Amino acid sequence: xxxxxxxxxxxxxxxxxxxxxxxxxxxxxxxxxxxxxxxxxxxxxxxxxxxxxxxxxxxxxxxxxxxxxxxxxxxxxxxxxxxxxxxxxxxxxxxxxxxxxxxxxxxxxxxxxxxxxxxxxxxxxxxxxxxxxxxxxxxxxxxxxxxxxxxxxxxxxxxxxxxxxxxxxxxxxxxxxxxxx
Length: 181
Ligand SMILES: CC(C)(COP(=O)(O)OP(=O)(O)OC[C@H]1O[C@@H](n2cnc3c(N)ncnc32)[C@H](O)[C@@H]1OP(=O)(O)O)[C@@H](O)C(=O)NCCC(=O)NCCS
Hints:
Elements: E1 2-5, E2 9-12, H1 19-26, H2 29-33, H3 43-60, E3 64-69, E4 74-83, H4 86-92, E5 99-106, H5 115-130, E6 135-139, H6 145-153, E7 157-164, E8 169-177
Parallel strand pairs: 5-6
Antiparallel strand pairs: 1-2, 2-3, 3-4, 4-5, 6-8, 7-8
Bound molecules: coenzyme A.
């Protein structure tokens, strides 16, 4: 199902036939190095992750969508939202704010073309227009200047360092409140 389009990209829901492309993203050590909480995935884990994403879309109405390049119809990345589990929600949320998490992961060979910026901007606009949420957060690896830059361009504000129990590290967290149109 197509969720949204930008000038160069289509964002759609994931399908089980997307395994190879998913592995090209989440099976890549360099991509995973920059994601605060994650490890490199095996093919089986990629399939599990795609299945979880499909369920997530059904349950919450959003997911970490597949990003397709219009010019050749290739799946080049993932960008979208994650529902916060209760623990994360408790530690990060304020009482009045329904919060979701934005993330963007692209195949390495497509970095540096502005695709992540374009996709992330469209996702934030989608949240403003279509999702019943008040706040978006995003955690990044502090060495990843690209993702920090994307969040700055989208007017996210630095919240501070947040501890991730699985990797035992503190990573920078950013937030942006949703402006209702
Ligand atoms: C982060 C990531 C999605 C960026 O993808 P991308 O398509 O290369 O991003 P963009 O091309 O939109 O570039 C974003 C900004 O970084 C800048 N940038 C690109 N390459 C750079 C480099 N080597 N050094 C410094 N800045 C760089 C761009 O110039 C752009 O800023 P600008 O618009 O002010 O010029 C990609 O590197 C990735 O998948 N990383 C691994 C996963 C990850 O870290 N995700 C973020 C946390 S969820």
